[in-house]
Amino acid sequence: MRRRDLIAALAAGAALAACQRQQAKTEAPSAGAGRADPAAVVRAFYQPYMGENSHPQFEQVAPLSAALTADLAAMNARTQAGDESSLDFDPIVDAQDFQVSDVTATTEAIAENSHAVVRASFTNLGERKEVVYDLVWQDNRWKVDNIRTAQWDLRQVVTGGH
């Protein structure tokens, strides 16, 4: 009976250690770890949209991943060739026009040194909006790899997959 108890205790200890390793991988990195909070990064995207007479361009406000930058460049080339129309709204505010206020952002998931999902909520011209950001860790910072809502997915829009 002692041997069975020892084996059970070792198995329980191994399972606990595995769970703790998995939890450590999915928790947000601490400020001391030298990583920016993904939600704080996304909240900062909205600052230029909150000023009077501001006209930010989302590509200049949010750092974009290499893959999303390439997809946008390919879409722009197709647009110039007359093969498709350009992006006709700003995905950060989910609209063409904006007067943004009451911005909140929450990190929904994170994989250390890899990916994060952040949900931003805000009021635009009196309407409550939610936008989800898929972030990737590139060049020692969080970069936008996709932006989406319940109605659209930027990656699909720019690649023609609507």
Describe this structure in words.
By secondary structure, this protein is an alpha+beta fold. It has a single domain, classed as Nuclear Transport Factor 2, Chain: A. The chain is 36% helix and 26% strand. It contains 5 helices and 4 strands, in the order ααααββββα. Strands 1-2-3-4 form a 4-stranded antiparallel sheet. It starts with a helix and ends with a helix. 23% of the residues are buried.
Low-confidence stretches: 1-34
The biggest beta sheet reads:
4 strands, antiparallel
Secondary structure class reads alpha+beta
Main β-sheet, spatial strand arrangement: 1-2-3-4
CATH secondary-structure class: Alpha Beta
Task: Give the CA-CA distance, first to last residue.
Answer: 62 Å
Helicity range of the residues? 25-40%
Under the CATH scheme, the architecture is: Roll
Strand content: 25-35%
Element string (H = helix, E = strand)? HHHHEEEEH
> What is the CATH topology?
Nuclear Transport Factor 2, Chain: A
Computed CA radius of gyration, to the nearest angstrom:
21 Å
| Tally of DSSP β-strands | 4
The number of helical segments is 5
Tally of discrete structural domains? 1
Overall, the morphology is: globular
What does the average pLDDT come to?
81
